[in-house]
Design goal:
Shape of chain A: globular
Structural class of chain A: alpha/beta
Oligomer: heterodimer
CATH topology of chain B: Rossmann fold
CATH superfamily of chain B: P-loop containing nucleotide triphosphate hydrolases
Number of domains of chain B: 1
CATH architecture of chain B: 3-Layer(aba) Sandwich
Strand content of chain A: 35-45%
Order of helices and strands of chain B: EEEHEEHEEHHEHEHEHEEH
Number of helices of chain A: 7
Number of strands of chain B: 12
Radius of gyration of chain A: 21 Å
Distance between the termini of chain A: 56 Å
CATH class of chain B: Alpha Beta
Distance between the termini of chain B: 34 Å
Helix content of chain A: 10-25%
Number of strands of chain A: 19
Chain lengths: 415, 256
């Protein structure tokens, strides 16, 4: 038996021995994930059943230029996890799944992973420090199988600035069947590197989606992640931020939109080093009988002098009787730190709604404008790149997505 | 029965806010192009009248009638009133975080234009008009690209209200203490804009405590509101007397 297949089978055995995530598991108890088999639906002959989608190039990941922005020095390798040598290269340097709360997802990923993409963003030759131009990347991912475990490894070299727009949008015309997608992304930021990461995850209504982003930051590295996610029958977005180097900074913003569907965001941050900063902010908008859970768990390890932590979770029910769970949590093991956290449940601001209606906007337009504004303000507080946000805003994607969400909310409400 | 010379006709309006009765019985008429000044002590119901006429859901009309250009104003929702040409300048205009001022105003203007059967303005044409109006009102052009009222000073908020008034060109504008927080140039801009719009037929109900502004506006009528009722009606002389004696003495004089 080849080593790639042996590794996958070992992961599967480990998973079966350890068992799946228990329904009362503290990290998942508000929205328990579907059972193990949902993430491992592979026939006995080992072939992965295809959906109706036409085959895509590469590993489900496709890399696209963004405007006229420089592409810089980007090494991209699409690797076959069923080939022993390529599997070694694909998983090189990645930690084993371990035994944490979400480890069963990681073991299931090892067991099913067929292909992956490794990206390395390097400094532009001949330029150093502030002269480095920002590298812009756009990654799109389309599912290729009913059960799949895509992998992305992204390394940003010391001092390099990178903008990454990562999109997961189902194109209904390509495939109407639900898929189970257990995706893992490992991000490594070198000393002084910056990654501004815009993530869009819009699954099909019948999709089971679990995305795990693991980011590790070296000294003075900065990571900004803005996530826009919509609900499905099960949708988990879990980000683990590992602030290993002093003065590392991580900011995340999550805009969660769920109308009669399920959606959970988990952001786990660990401050290992001194003078590190993290900020987690989430805005959850739910309607109908949606179930939305937003978790922010931050741990400040011993010795993390002058660490600064901020968590702010906001939930707004738009219509119907959604279940909105907001869970800010701090674990502080060092004295000399600053930490604030809070959770707010509320309605859209009535004074602003009336103001807009008094100027002639109908109720739906006023609500859409205000929600869009709240979303843009949220993203702007996280992503320190007005040009990126302006370009993206001008595309109308956010406005369209929010308008569709509010329209669905209305339908759910009236239905 | 409404007459063509009356744009707004209010009869015996009674308004509750929550469990509290604020307006007991208010009647007034406003003709096209007319300017009515509304004075009154704090808590007399001036802002409540404006918000109730504009259709704020928290201000419940218990009884009475209001006709706007022959139509039942109270049967319309807030946006229908705005589209019919009723504009309220807020005493404390709220923030709308993340929504750029120019997008907000253009969306509002196009909603009103659509109701009037006019073609919507594209971003280019709108910006040209907005820049011109902002310049005339002393509002820095940068304010157009900032989120609505966010981080604006009191005077900037009021100038932003004037900008919307100038662009929306309503048939009736209710200005609630538009001069508060304004500097001298701002007050001058208010007077100039009101004069220009009055010349085009816009009517005004202006809430103010300051005689200098009131005199500059050359009102047709001055009303004093007291405890939810119109206590006195007159001309500029009434405003001058209130400025001399204050509201307490004005009430005593009527009582005597």
């Amino acid at each position: 038996m080849d080593t790639a297949r042996a590794d996958a089978l070992a992961a599967r055995d480990h998973l079966h021995q350890q068992g799946w995530i228990a329904p009362r598991n503290e990290s998942f108890r508000h929205l328990p994930p579907p059972g193990m088999e949902s993430w491992l639906q592979v026939p006995a002959d080992g072939t992965v059943p295809g959906c109706d989608a036409p085959p895509l190039a590469g590993a489900g990941w496709t890399l696209h230029p963004v405007g006229n922005a420089p592409q810089g020095s980007v090494q991209a390798r699409w690797l076959d996890a069923q080939d022993p040598a390529q599997r070694d290269e694909l998983f090189a340097g990645l930690p084993l799944p371990g035994d944490g709360d979400a480890a069963p997802f990681a073991w299931a990923h090892r067991a099913l992973c067929r292909q992956g993409l490794r990206l390395r963003v390097q400094a532009t030759p001949g330029k150093t420090g502030p002269d480095q131009s920002t590298v812009w990347l756009q990654l799109r991912h389309q599912p290729r199988a009913e059960a799949e475990a895509p992998l992305l490894v992204l390394e940003v070299d010391d001092g390099v600035r990178c903008v990454l727009i990562e999109t997961h949008e189902r194109e209904a015309a390509q495939c109407g069947r639900g898929v189970a997608q257990n995706l893992h992304a490992h991000i490594r930021l070198g000393t002084g590197a910056t990654l501004q990461h815009l993530r869009i995850a819009v699954p099909g209504a019948q999709d089971r989606m679990a995305h795990h982003v693991h980011a590790r930051l070296a000294p003075h590295a900065r990571y900004e992640q803005a996530l826009i996610a919509t609900g499905s029958i099960y949708h988990l977005q879990r980000t683990t931020l590992d602030l290993q180097g002093h003065h590392a900074e991580a900011h995340t913003a999550g805009l969660l939109l769920a109308a009669g569907s399920a959606l959970e965001q988990q952001v786990h941050t660990v401050h290992h080093a001194g003078y590190t900063t993290s900020q987690v902010e989430t805005l959850a908008l739910a309607s109908g009988n949606a179930r939305v859970v937003a978790n922010a768990h931050t741990r400040i390890a011993q010795g993390a002098d002058e660490a600064t932590v901020r968590q702010r979770l906001t939930g707004i029910p738009l219509a119907g009787q959604p279940r909105l769970v907001l869970r800010p949590h701090l674990e502080i093991l060092h004295d000399k730190v600053q930490a604030t956290h809070g959770a707010t449940w509320g309605a859209l601001p009535e004074d602003a709604l009336f103001y807009a209606r008094q100027r002639g906007l109908d109720d739906a337009s006023a609500r859409a404008l205000i929600v869009q504004g709240m979303a843009q303000a949220l993203l702007a507080r996280c992503i320190d790149h007005p040009e990126l946000l302006a370009t993206w805003q001008d595309s109308g994607w956010l406005a369209g997505t929010i308008a569709r969400h509010l329209a669905t909310s209305q339908e759910v409400h009236h239905g | 029965m409404n007459t063509p010379s009356t744009l707004l006709q209010v009869r015996n309006l009674r308004v509750d806010v929550g469990e509290r009765n604020v307006l007991k019985s208010v009647s007034l008429d406003v003709a096209p192009g007319a300017l009515v000044v509304l004075m009154g002590a704090n808590g007399s119901g001036k802002s409540t009248l404006g918000l109730a006429l504009a259709g704020h859901p928290s201000y419940r009309v218990v009884s009475g009638q209001a006709q706007f250009d022959g139509q039942d104003l109270l049967a319309m929702n807030a946006q229908e009133r705005a589209r019919a040409g009723l504009f309220l300048s807020f005493q404390v205009p709220p923030d709308i975080p993340g929504v750029k001022n120019n997008l907000f105003i253009r969306s509002a203007l196009n909603a009103v234009r659509e109701a009037r059967g006019q073609v919507p303005l594209d971003a280019f044409d709108f910006l040209a008009s907005a820049r011109t109006a902002a310049q005339q009102l002393g509002l820095p052009e940068a304010m157009l690209g900032r989120p609505v009222n966010e981080g604006f000073s009191g005077g900037e908020r009021k100038r932003n209200e004037l900008l919307q008034l100038a662009l929306l060109q309503p048939r009736l504008a209710l200005l609630d203490e538009i001069d508060s927080g304004m500097d001298v140039d701002g007050v001058r801009a208010v007077v100039q804009l009101v004069q220009n719009l009055r010349a085009q037929g816009t009517a005004f109900v202006v809430v103010s405590h300051y005689l200098q502004l009131i005199e500059s506006l050359e009102p047709d009528t001055v009303l004093r509101l007291d405890q939810g009722c119109i206590a006195e009606s007159g001309d500029l002389e009434l405003a001058r007397r209130i400025a001399r004696t204050g509201y307490a003495h004005a009430a005593e004089a009527v009582g005597a």
